[in-house]
């Protein structure tokens, strides 16, 4: 017996056959980046219902409305997975985020009329201390 996890590989190429249609997980509508499936299932059901009322072309509705979103999310997943599995990539991302936070704080401080109050507030925050902004 072949068992799989949540189907996050993107939409199937066919959405049904004859008068049988696929929606939700069965059609592969689970969001690849987070595994969410309830909202996409409702969207695919809605698209099917509208297509059946209108002209019966569920494939056209899916390809026009839903596939672009799913393709984008699948691309994000393909880019993100290797980064999440690489310690070096994660360390670089953390360093980059520290720099972004530091630069944002610097800009906020320069533009603030009450910079002393802002600095005291930021220094008092555990996250800022944790990031060790002065060691970047």
Shape: elongated
Helix content percent band = 55-70%
The mean pLDDT is 77
List unreliable stretches of 5+ residues: 132-136
The structural class is mainly alpha
Q: Characterize the biggest β-sheet.
A: 2 strands, antiparallel
Indicate the radius of gyration in whole angstroms: 23 Å
Range of strand content: under 5%
Count of spatially separate domains: 2
User: Secondary-structure element sequence?
Assistant: EEHHHHH
Strand runs, count? 2
Order of strands across the main sheet: 1-2
Description:
This protein has 136 residues and is mainly α. It has two domains: 16-84, no CATH class; 87-135, no CATH class. Helices cover 62% and strands 3% of the residues. It is built from five helices and two strands. A two-stranded antiparallel ribbon has the order 1-2. A hairpin with a 2-residue loop joins strand 1 and strand 2. Residues 132-136 have low confidence and may be disordered.
Summarize, please.
This protein is mainly α and 136 residues long.
Descriptive keywords:
5 helices, 62% helix, mainly alpha, 136 residues, two-stranded antiparallel sheet, disordered C terminus, elongated
Strand and helix map with partners:
Blueprint: E1 16-17, E2 20-21, H1 38-54, H2 58-84, H3 87-111, H4 115-124, H5 126-131
Antiparallel strand pairs: 1-2
């Amino acid at each position: 017996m072949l068992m799989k996890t949540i189907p996050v590989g993107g939409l199937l190429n066919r959405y049904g056959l004859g008068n049988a249609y696929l929606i939700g997980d069965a059609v592969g509508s689970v969001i690849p980046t987070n595994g969410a499936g309830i909202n996409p299932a409702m969207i695919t059901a809605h698209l099917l219902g509208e297509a059946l009322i209108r002209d019966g072309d569920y494939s056209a509705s899916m390809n026009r409305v839903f596939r672009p979103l799913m393709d984008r999310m699948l691309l994000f997943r393909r880019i993100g997975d290797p980064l999440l599995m690489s310690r070096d990539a994660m360390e670089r991302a953390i360093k980059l985020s520290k720099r972004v936070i530091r630069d944002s704080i610097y800009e906020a401080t320069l533009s603030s009329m009450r910079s002393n109050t802002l600095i005291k507030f930021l220094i008092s925050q555990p996250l800022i201390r944790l990031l060790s902004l002065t060691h970047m």
